[in-house]
Amino acid sequence: MKKILFIDRDGTLIEEPPVDYLVDSYEKLQFLPSVIQNLVDIVRHTDFELVMITNQDGLGTPIFPEEKFWGPHNLMMKTFETEGITFREVLIDKTFAKDKAPTRKPFTGLVTHYMQGDFDLENSFVIGDRLTDVQLAVNLGCKGIMIGKSLDLADDSMVDMEKVNKAMALKTDNWTAIKNYLIR
Ligand SMILES: [Mg+2]
Fold first, then answer.
1. Which site among 34, 82, 99, 169 is 20 to 30 Å from 181 CA-CA?
2. The pTM is what?
3. Domain span at residue 102?
């Protein structure tokens, strides 16, 4: 049975720009400290497969045209690839929070194919910087790892704090702690 790390993108792999939250230019592409070296270790020393899952609000609309997204995104992917970090899938939801789409985290619409079949979800993790990422872990039946210190109050209504606290395996501000936890 395959174990998966479902990894958020903005605020988790790369910095989430303040003010507009959009990585829509090369200047705004910045990796989190030590993320590459720690992912290299995780890939090398564990049997997790990596899946990226990200909400990109309004991607493809005038506020976030596709052509501004793919350049920085592809450079990020290429950088990971050259270090041997490959993702079996990159899942992008393009709706807004107000749409309450079933495909938008914390809902599982983009990952239903992992909920049946040969996946060991109990021993899989969602890694993200928001409580809604850990709520996705709850909804998937995996555990959650939270990086950073977002309070995510805006998404409160979708978060069941009791279940989120139970699913939370680790809360940290750095990738070295995540690596150490997963390799332990
Ligand atoms: Mg995030």
1. 82
2. 0.96
3. 3-183
Residue 139: which of 157, 152, 158 has the closest Cα?
158
* Rounded Cα–Cα distance for residues 57 and 93 (Å): 8
Q: Residue for token digits 């702690």?
A: 177
Going from the Cα of 132 to the center of ligand 1, the distance in angstroms, rounded, reads 9
Residue given tokens 């606290």 in the structure block: 165
Please report which residue ranges of the chain form alpha helices under DSSP H.
35-45, 66-82, 131-140, 161-167, 175-183
- The tally of domains found in the chain comes to 1
Structure tokens at 140: 């998937």
What's 120's domain CATH number?
3.40.50.1000
Average pLDDT over residues 112-138: 96
pLDDT exceeds cutoff 70 at 164: yes
57 is catalytic: no
* Mean pLDDT computed over 40-69: 97
With a cut of 70, say whether residue 36 has pLDDT above it. Answer: yes
CA dist 128 and 136 (Å) reads: 10
- How many whole angstroms from 133 Cα to the centroid of ligand 1? 8
Report the pLDDT value the prediction gives residue 12, as an integer from 0 to 100.
98
